[in-house]
Design brief:
alpha+beta, 8-stranded mixed beta sheet, 36% helix, elongated, binds zinc ion
Amino acid sequence: MADKSVAARAPGGTHDVLWPESTRWEALLTRFAVHVERAGYGLAHTPIFEDVKVFRRGIGEGSDVVGKEMYEFEDRGGRTLALRPEGTAPMVRAWVQHRPALPWKAWYATPAFRYERPQAGRYRQHHQLGVEALGPADADLDVEVVALADGFFRSLGLSAFGLRINSMGDDTCRPAYLDLLTAYLVDRRHELCDEHRERLEANPLRALDCKRNGCREVADGAPGFVDHLCDECATHFARVRKGLDAMGVAYELDHRLVRGFDYYTRTTFEFGSTALESAQNGIGGGGRYDGLVEMLGGPATPGIGFGMGIERILLACDAEGVLTVDPAPLDAFVVDTTGGSAARDLTFALRAAGLSADRAFDDRSMKAQFRAADRSGARWVLIVGPDEAASGTVSLRPLRGEGDQRTVPVAEVVDAVRRASDAPPAP
Ligand SMILES: [Zn+2]
Ligand SMILES: [Zn+2]
């Protein structure tokens, strides 16, 4: 008896991706790999879990991601580990551990885990694509990384999205700006939402990107960091803007854009789809994190990167009607009513020749095998019945109006299917 107590459901907030939807994932991953490898980024894989300190130090205890949403657990050896909530800190940890030569340009594709209330467009396990570049402090690298993300979205056919950028300064100018901002917020304390009124002194930046009404109005009038940058940060940001202008990458300056992780410095950016609802329209973002390598125990090393959510990108693609990927059809499906060994040999021969082929199993009836052939979407059905078996031939029949049925000797089947599959499919 089947054990009915086993819950045959994916855990809440997670989802399965099955064929043919998965063909879009394949297409997206392939396009991303080609796009970023063209710019010199190499694939890196790091573990799905890390010592929890990698995230506590890098992202910061005060962030929602670490404070409220992280999947933390103790393993059987008593170590406190966490499933990665984002992509950057583990990549930087890997660089600190192995010290590959600088500049180090790497990309990743990974699941990310956050214990959030499941809702449309938010998952407890979602999937991210991203790049990290360590070494250069050069503003041209910021331009490259932002333009790379922008170009990727456009290469998918997306156009209904906007880019917001800001500078978060550095250790030189941030303390004075935070004092200024705190003083401004204290004056208007009664207008802030409950959460940010209480956390004002601990993290004044958080009120700036709060979407609740009170905070929003206060944030609109708040002093912008870009007006209070030190000379080095101001020069850097001016070069980033000039570079984006030169590359034709459109952006909007938004002084409320202060991404919630402690590690960000200087340039921060976020892409939002205008085809999605505004609460969940973020399709990607990132920024410079010049202090993160040191936070994780390495030598002072600048860095910048971006991450983007696969599920969100696909939602945006749906909303814009782009990246519709049709699975490639099989070249041939073998129907064998003589016991199955002919189907076994033919499919192997076709696959060895680089053609795609499938077959039915379990010696089903001719009718059942033809139904399976239809379902497979193959271009040609190859039929081996008693007549064909007796004469050493195979009958080829088009499944979708590509010419007439004909009979060829077994030895010529591979060539016949190849010739047929090279021909353009009928409209
Ligand atoms: Zn608020
Ligand atoms: Zn500065």
